[in-house]
Records
---
Amino acid sequence: MSQVAAITTAVEPAESPLTPESWGKLGMWIFLAADAMSFGALLAGYGALRYGSTDWPVPAGVLGIGLTAFMTFLLICSSVTMVFALAAIQRGDLRGLRTFLLLTILGGLMFLGMQAYEWSHLIHRGLTLSSNPFGARLFGTTFFIITGFHGAHVTGGVIYLSCYLVRALLGRVTQANANAIEIAALYWHFVDLVWILVFTFVYLL
């Protein structure tokens, strides 16, 4: 009888090691992989257009490198506060989660405000999607598309984190929900990493 039970157990399908939490992480990783290809295609297109152009302007002569460097520093700091937010909820510190989520959101909002200032300044100088007084017209096109695409991701991240901040303020986030905060942190770190690449390829090189 014991042999029959052993054989029955052996042929039964094993339970999936994936839990609802790990499914969430897997879904986020798949989304980020697809999104990385989108940004990669945009940066590759930018590189190809720049390589084939004879009058492509030097970015440092047109764009505000100092301002953008500070924007980059802000996003890096917001990644650090996001790490602290995750660590706080993992140890059950709801107050710490609220504080560091708020700081992360403020960092994102400050980044968006500075990007809006940069855009308005450049548009005032004549750089638009269809015009560029400094050289190749496609410089403005690629600049606004790439930075705008990233800005949309930052906006989405701010809204994403704000939803969790509201839930935390209402006491609806507990240590058991740490996995959800970890998934949100994955998205935010991705957005920050992509900006470092954008800053390097579009502003510095």
---
Amino acid sequence: MLQTAMIFCAGLGTRFKPWTDNHPKALAVINGKSLLQRNIEYLQGFGIKRVIVNVHHFAPQIIEALQQNNGWGSEVIISDEQDVVLETGGGLLKAKDYLIPGESFLTINVDILTTLDITAFYNFHQQNQSLISLAVSDRKTSRCFVFDEYNRLTGWRNLQTGEERMSIPTMGGSNKAFSGISIFNYEFFNYLRLQGKFSLVDAYLSLAKGHLIAGFDHSGDKWVDVGKPETVPVAEALFA
């Protein structure tokens, strides 16, 4: 089973102003608990108690909250990006030394709240023997990943602009919304050629042609991206 996860907390949270003018989005409160606490406890529910947290925007506030609450019962490792924010891909690469060679690990964006069954997700990852597995759903979105009939990632589309970035030529294909949660084999780092500041989306698309990246459809689970202040009431209605 998975032992380690990384929660991405370094973002500037520009969509979440005015809260993020003085605080990191990770500490935004939903029904009395911060997004960070909720995700740490969510991971604990599936036996994941070793967590890496990357920090940049108001980093000392996150570090203090973790220290005051003893990591809410988990072993929390700080990956410090205070010098420069690296986006999700660069942030994961910087945290490589905190991950365990040979072991799969999960990543999640701190502003995602969900009831996704991580055990089922991990079993899917193992059965498909994929390098990376992406949690996806049928919800409506303007930007989506494209999968073939075998749930293999083939590309990315912006449904508003018509822009496409196809790694594998695909006629049609099914559009799925990315849920902000992934499972990686550690071997991912052996194949990654991107450096510095980059998005994990870029990493997925650069690797999809030569390696199996599979989509795990969890449509029907509770899921909310707490990316804007107006999504807070939605999140509070879904998560007590």
---
Amino acid sequence: MNEINIEKFGVFISNKRKELGMTQKELAEKLFLSDKAVSKWERGVSQS
């Protein structure tokens, strides 16, 4: 089974969010999460 590289995942999420012209808060609202969760993903601190 492949393991997800959380740093690459964070960069991917950040790039896609910026491509769409969204803030972390806007993305979080669409995903029913907090903007702090999105920030942690993008920094590679957490995946959950």
---
Amino acid sequence: MNRLDIAKKVRRKILTHIKNNPGRHFSEILRRLKLSSGRLTYHILKLEEAEKIFAKYDGYWKRFYPISAVNDVIPKSLTPKQAEILRIITKHPGSTYMKIVDRCGKTRQAIYYHMKKLAETGMIRIDCVKGKHFFYLGKAGEGSNGK
């Protein structure tokens, strides 16, 4: 097998992975496909040039998608901690801030940061009653003060 055939095989492998796992970031693709960083960088660049994939920044991460998803609405990806907070609120609607902090096992400041981001995207709703905050799934501002 010559170099060109090997390169095509590697690109096909990367493209298949991105089609099956849209929104993966570089480090995750690198880990899953067990390629060197330089090799993955080169082939991703070639796939982008060939308009087989495109990249979109999601905060810190550059995520890769198949070109077929170019017109799709790409949801904002959640961090593992944000996903955990959403699971807690789903299981325990109306949880208070301190109950969520206790269940997550992280600092109050870290949980506050993630909850603020979730509220900004409208994934959680915050109701304030007599100075106490209660958290629910849904849009901020619907039946609450949104703070």
